[in-house]
Design brief:
- This protein is mostly beta strands.
- The chain has a single domain, classed as Immunoglobulin-like.
- About 5% of the residues lie in helices and about 55% in strands.
- The protein has 1 helix and 7 strands, in the order E-E-E-E-H-E-E-E.
- The strands form 2 sheets. The protein has a 4-stranded mixed beta sheet with strand order 1-7-6-3, with no helix packed on it. It has a 3-stranded antiparallel beta sheet with strand order 2-5-4, with no helix packed on it.
- The two termini are about 15 Å apart.
Length: about 100
Amino acid sequence: MIELSVGQLLLVELPESPTSRRLWQMVRPPDQAVLMPDGNRYDQTEAEKAAGDLVGMQQLRFKAVGPGEAILSLAMVRPGTGLAPSDERWMGQIIVR
């Protein structure tokens, strides 16, 4: 469970490898009266880039917009192929006060 105040940002960082052609996406949008998507990006440290590391972090941002509860459900998928049982998943219960 993650607790936020209205106006706070939630940053979810999950490992991703661009060479896998898979990325983290929402399985379904959270209750947008409570939590709104606020962008995402892929990030690698300079050391990871210099080492030719194939793994970085995908950063997904969400803004707490109103009091309530929301379930944030993410899966690592191939864009355009839909959700598969073998896809990695991440889920969090978000409470905004």
